[in-house]
Specification:
Number of domains: 1
Largest sheet: 4 strands, parallel
Mean pLDDT: 93
CATH topology: Uracil-DNA Glycosylase, subunit E
CATH superfamily: Uracil-DNA glycosylase-like domain
Oligomer: single chain
CATH architecture: 3-Layer(aba) Sandwich
Radius of gyration: 15 Å
Order of helices and strands: EEHHHEEEHEHEH
Strand order of the largest sheet: 3-2-6-7
């Protein structure tokens, strides 16, 4: 199995500005997201649909609309891994993690909370990012939310919406 693993470097920058109030962290872009050069690019990933429903807005479709949607709703978006060894899109295959440094986001914006999209993102955040951040005694609360990935088929749309609704309290 290890011969099929490939080292991948995160292919696109974080989305944020000074008005961002929450940071949503994924683990690492899927193969489809790497192909489309933007977050949650798989047609069956429920991220865009779920966040739009929570915020009572239309689901953005194109990359420009998605960036505008995030910034207009005070959402910063990035992933936990700057690079890793991975096979395909499987979070379970992530190895040799080099974490992203979220310090610049936290210095630029008043992030009120960090939400991790799935258990793997949460684990990566706790293990690799949290201990290395220069947060100057300011660690926003952080939470694990159910993954919006199509691989998380056990979590229905109603469950996702209920769990993700907490982000509205912070934006």
């Amino acid at each position: 199995m290890t011969q099929n693993l490939q080292t991948q470097v995160h292919p696109f920058p974080p989305i944020y500005d000074a008005s961002s109030r929450i940071l949503i962290l994924g683990s690492f872009p899927s193969v489809k997201s790497r192909e489309t050069q933007f977050y949650y690019g798989h047609a069956r990933n429920r991220f865009w649909k779920t966040v739009a429903a929570v915020l009572h807005t239309e689901t953005p479709q194109k990359i420009g609309e998605k960036k505008e949607f995030l910034l207009n709703n005070h959402i910063a978006l990035w992933d936990a891994c700057a690079s890793c060894t991975i096979q395909g899109s499987a979070d379970a295959a992530i190895r040799d993690v080099v974490p992203n440094d979220i310090t610049q986001i936290l210095r630029t914006a008043e992030i009120r909370a960090i939400f991790c999209n799935g258990k793997t993102a949460y684990t990566l955040f706790q293990k690799y990012i949290l201990p290395k951040q220069d947060l100057q005694n300011r660690t926003p609360p952080y939470f694990a939310l159910p993954s919006t990935s199509p691989a998380n088929a056990g979590c229905g749309e109603a469950q996702l919406l209920a769990a993700w609704s907490c982000i509205a309290d912070y934006v």
